Amino acid sequence: MSEQDRYIPGVPCWADTTQPDPEAASAFYAGLFGWELENIMPPDAPGEYFNARLPGGDVGAVSSQPEGAPPGAVWNTYVWVDDADETARKGQEAGGTVLQEPFDIFDSGRMATFADPEGAVISVWQPKEHRGAAVVNEHGAVNFNTLTTGDIEGAAAFYGAVFGWEVLDVGGASMWALPGYGDFLESRTPGMRKNMAEMGAPERFEDVVASVSPGADEPPHWGITFGVDDADSAAARAKELGGEVLVEPFDAPWTRMTIVRDPQGAVFTASQFKPENKDLGQ
């Protein structure tokens, strides 16, 4: 790990979407978030991988679907790890299923993909040249990763064994906390804890790396939330670009959010930070 890295092992560090038509998907997200996209695969590669950037650096990517993958479009979450092989082994021993054995991606890094015991799919990233997203928590950048599952207790056992995560109750919502993450963030940005406390952030919020939501009525999965400056404008723009707004913008604690399905079927949440909503629902 370098001094410039934003991540430590156990922290989600990257997101990409696999799409039947990656060029059309790139146009949609460029129009929605202002991304600049570049296909970084060699000319003779069997697929495309469009790296997405905002001012300040990389934010994510749009990819062709791997051969043999399910036909639907989906967003994928990657967690930073020291050793992809060891983490895949831990996942299997904890009751998960390795879907993609560890493999190298040129000089960028080494990855593996597995499903947790309930079937939610997640990937791990052992970084080399590629050090994860450089821009987060801004308009058009990843803001949060959320596991939806009908078995939170089972998920806690699995992800605790694999990544060392703990389930934390934050104002009535369940979050994944990684002990020591707050110390890392404080070392990168001295005064972070004090600023969060002054804003009224819940205790230990600085250790939060992701969230978990009960979802007995839908298949277990990992979802992506992007930051936006204005949730209402983002919903309207998504419709103009051919997307479908599944949930119209609504207020929630600390945020205003909308849920969108892109034209090829990948679902994501767009979230506007609204500190004036911090006590909403209490």
What does this structure look like?
Helices cover 21% and strands 39% of the residues. The protein is of the alpha+beta class. Strands 2-3-4-1-5-8-7-6 form an 8-stranded mixed sheet. The protein has an 8-stranded mixed sheet with strand order 10-11-12-9-13-16-15-14. The mean pLDDT is 92.
Q: Layout of SSEs?
A:
Elements: E1 12-19, H1 22-33, E2 36-39, E3 49-54, E4 57-64, E5 74-80, H2 84-93, E6 97-105, E7 109-115, E8 121-127, E9 142-149, H3 152-163, E10 166-170, E11 173-177, H4 181-188, H5 192-199, E12 208-214, E13 221-227, H6 231-240, E14 244-252, E15 255-261, E16 267-273
Parallel strand pairs: 1-4, 5-8, 9-12, 13-16
Antiparallel strand pairs: 1-5, 2-3, 3-4, 6-7, 7-8, 9-13, 10-11, 11-12, 14-15, 15-16
Helix pairs in contact: 2-3
Quick synopsis:
By secondary structure, the chain is α+β, with helices and mostly antiparallel strands. The chain has helices spanning 22-33, 84-93, 152-163, 181-188, 192-199, 231-240, and strands at residues 12-19, 36-39, 49-54, 57-64, 74-80, 97-105, 109-115, 121-127, 142-149, 166-170, 173-177, 208-214, 221-227, 244-252, 255-261, 267-273.
Alpha-beta content class: alpha+beta
Oligomer: single chain
Tell me what portion of residues adopts beta-strand conformation.
35-45%
Q: What count of helical segments does DSSP give?
A: 6
The ordered string of helix (H) and strand (E) elements is EHEEEEHEEEEHEEHHEEHEEE
Give Rg in angstroms.
18 Å
Q: Looking at CATH, which topology of the largest domain would you report? A: 2,3-Dihydroxybiphenyl 1,2-Dioxygenase, domain 1
Percent helix among the residues? 10-25%
What's the story with the biggest beta sheet?
A: 8 strands, mixed
Q: Which architecture of the largest domain would the CATH scheme give at its second level?
A: Roll
Note the gap between the termini: 41 Å
What is the number of E strands?
Answer: 16
How many domains in all? Answer: 2
**CATH class placement of the largest domain:** Alpha Beta
User: What would you give as the CATH superfamily of the largest domain?
Assistant: 2,3-Dihydroxybiphenyl 1,2-Dioxygenase, domain 1
Mean pLDDT: 92
Order of adjacent strands in the largest pleated sheet = 2-3-4-1-5-8-7-6
Residue stretches low in confidence (pLDDT < 50, at least 5 long) are none
